[in-house]
Amino acid sequence: MIINVKYFASLREIVSIEHEQFDLPGEQSILSVRSAILARRPQLSGIIEKCKTARNRNIVLLLDETVADGDEIVLLPPMSGG
Questions:
Q1: Hey, which of 6, 13, 72, 75 has its CA 20 to 30 A from 59?
Q2: Rg of the chain over CA atoms, in angstroms?
Q3: What's the mean pLDDT in 59-80?
């Protein structure tokens, strides 16, 4: 299955790309997709644990939620403001 991953803000700066595709076998969960991202992009270790995940523009609350072919996964880094 093909999963489209987008990186925003500081994550995009860290990985130096805006988006990429992952071709993953069988049924996958949000957690397993995040693990695949970390395996390909180890420079995200330390920050990925703090990121929220959106699936098809909806924030995911349960990391065991199943993804489907063609889904868009977005990693949202922690925000700060003032």
A1: 13
A2: 12
A3: 92
pLDDT, tens digit (0-9, with 9 covering 90-100), for 28-59: 999 999 999 999 999 999 999 999 999 999 99
Which amino acid, 50?
K
pLDDT higher than 90, residue 80: no
The count of domains in the chain is: 1
Q: Is 55 helix (H, G, I), strand (E, B) or coil?
A: strand
Q: What pTM was estimated for this model as a whole?
A: 0.90
Domain containing residue 67: CATH number: 3.10.20.30
Burial profile 55-70: b = 16 or more Cβ within 10 angstroms, e = fewer: beeeebeeeeeebeee
Question: Under DSSP, is residue 36 helix (H, G, I), strand (E, B) or coil?
Answer: helix
Where are any strands of DSSP class E within 30-81? 52-55, 58-59, 66-67, 72-76
For residues 63 and 51, the answer to whether their CB atoms sit within 8 Å is no
